[in-house]
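Q: Could you write out the predicted structure for this multi-component system? I'm mainly interested in how the pieces pack against one another.
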Amino acid sequence: MSRQVVVLGVGLHPFGRFPEKTAQELVREAAIMALDSAGVAFRDVNLVTCGRVQPSSGGAFEAVSELGMTGVPIITTDMACASSSTAFRQACQAIELGVADVALVVGFERMERGLVQANTAGSYKDMMGLGLMPPRYALKAKAYMERYGAPAEAFAQVSVKSHKNATYNKYAHHQKELSLEEVMNSRMVADPITLYQCCPTSDGAGAVVVSAMEVAAQYSSRWVRVAGWGMGTPCYDDAGSLETDADLTDKVAKRIAGEAYERAGIGPDDVDVTQLHDAFTSGEIVRIEALGLCEEGAAADLTVRGETGITGSIPVNTDGGLLSRGHPLGATGVAQIAEIFWQLLGEAGERQVEGPPKVGLCHNAGGGASAGIVVHVFDR
Amino acid sequence: MVTRVHQTGPESMIAAPYDVALIQIDSGPLIEAVSTSQLDERKIATGEPVELVLEALGEDEGGEEIAAYRFKLAGEREEKG
């Protein structure tokens, strides 16, 4: 019988541009905040898992060493944009199996400006101008528009909502409201995705402390439970046809979210608040549907009507999401978990969803078409 | 569906703007491909038949030709069943 796991505490270093700071400084701030929030001392941590993407061999050792040298094992994971969600899953699994009682999960990234190179450097796709993220998400949008007659403005509205939410989040990269006109009239990147419908590259770090439920009371009286999870990559059966699928990754999300719901013993109707992978605006629209939060074809209209906002019927990306909170690749997964932790405990301040919500979901995707998808369901 | 790409990566040998579409090959697989010329989107609907074109993009450092697959609208429009 595997053990129950709870999130005991979370911490973030603000996301944005911090060229003067080292990765260690970013991680230290986030990790100390998470440990304090959990009531856990670093010497009590049995395992550290770390998500980060941009290569610097051994970077995690250095980043974590400032917290203390207690002999704790450190595991680093690269799953592209889903790195720290994967690191979180590794920590949960170690606790479920009794290998660790208390684990610290950290995610961090320091990034350059401009397009993220998703391909292997020098690949034929790079030379052919293919495999870039904006066109891939643009094709999702085009397919959606063609299938359901949705207007381009529906995608822009995702960004308007996201930027508004982020004005309530002091950790967000962009804390400035944008109008629909400003989003629509920003520079075209890949039709219909304009610049303000693309997430920024960011610097940042996040940390989460997890423990076995049976030891949680030693540290804290406030925690949320990891109720279910799903993780995986595409399989051939996920591939569809041009008429039905613009990109198979969202079929994968549907399958993997289904696994998470099954493990949690709930359905999508039970989810009160969601953080999902909105690297570009079309990602949010199609993934709301892939996660089963509404019927297929309904997400664009719900977005336009404000139903995905903090006070709407399906609040999504309450902290601003990747689009406005920012997307320091390795830190995004833990930032999503941090937001769900705060939301479920009623500690989200001005962006608090009424209730407070009882069930939260995180969806994090890494690596384009050959994507790794990680979904977690939390409750309290 | 087609998207016009206005910003590309530093290693791309095809200058932006260019058009990218998802192409379904007769035998099943979906691939992303760049068109040989800018397309008039109004004329492109899902299901439009296209043809494979092999095109030289340039040469590598050793003088070897670098060729790529691209697509163009099929010469004669076929009715799709």
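A: Regarding packing and overall arrangement: The beta strands of chain B are 2-5, 18-24, 30-35, 50-59, 65-73.
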